[in-house]
């Protein structure tokens, strides 16, 4: 999608601090981190919201979650704990309409969020 910020990052039209990439997934540091670790994990294929997912997308969603756990382990925060969040639509705080998982950790996180 031509006006999607994350598609522009994926296509290298906008710079980002990339921490992982394969042929289906890209992960990069959030520019407004909410913790010592705040990484966004996105599918390279544009999917605007979780509401658009179908059973054909089960594998990519699993890849996003597994990759976030691997990054947490690499960063040394997996044992202490980390949070993964998908925001869906405006009322939940989604500002970029390309699904993305927030991996947040490296500090104690309160509950409930928001």
Number of strands: 5
SSE string, helix = H, strand = E?
HEEEHEE
Number of helices: 2
For the biggest sheet, the summary is: 5 strands, antiparallel
Ends: how far apart?
Answer: 29 Å
Can you describe this structure in just a few lines?
With 114 residues, the protein is an alpha+beta fold. It has helices spanning 5-10, 58-74; strands spanning 18-21, 25-29, 37-43, 82-85, 101-105.
Give a written overview of the molecule.
This protein is of the alpha+beta class and about 110 residues long. The protein has a single domain (about 5-105), classed as HIT family, subunit A, CATH 3.30.428.10. It is about 20% helix and about 20% strand. The chain has 2 helices and 5 strands, in the order αβββαββ. It has a 5-stranded antiparallel beta sheet, covered by helices on one side. Strand 1 (about 20) and strand 2 (about 25-30) form a beta hairpin. The longest helix is centred in the middle third of the chain and has 17 residues, at about 60-75. The protein is globular. The model has no long low-confidence stretch (mean pLDDT about 95).
Any chance you could write out the topology, listing elements then pairs?
Layout (H helix, E strand, L loop, with lengths): L4 H6 L7 E4 L3 E5 L7 E7 L14 H17 L7 E4 L15 E5 L9
Antiparallel strand pairs: 1-2, 2-3, 3-5, 4-5
């Amino acid at each position: 999608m031509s006006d999607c910020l994350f598609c522009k990052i994926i296509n290298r039209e906008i710079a980002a601090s990339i921490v992982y990439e394969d042929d289906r997934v890209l992960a990069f540091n959030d520019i407004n981190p909410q913790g010592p670790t705040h990484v966004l994990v996105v599918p390279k294929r544009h999917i605007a919201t979780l509401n658009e997912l179908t059973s054909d997308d089960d594998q990519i969603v699993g890849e996003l979650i597994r990759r976030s756990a691997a990054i947490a382990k690499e960063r040394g925060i997996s044992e202490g704990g980390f949070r993964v969040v998908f925001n869906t639509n405006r009322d939940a705080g989604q500002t970029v309409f390309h699904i993305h998982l927030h991996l947040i950790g490296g500090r104690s996180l309160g509950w409930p969020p928001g």
